[in-house]
Amino acid sequence: MALHCATTCAIAVLAAGLGSAITHPHGHTPDGARWLLCGSVAGYFGVGILAAVVAGASWRRILLWALPCLLLTLLLAVSAVHFGAVWLLWGLVAAVVWQIVCASDVPGRVSGGRGA
Question: How far is CA 28 from the centre of its chain?
Answer without folding.
Answer: 21
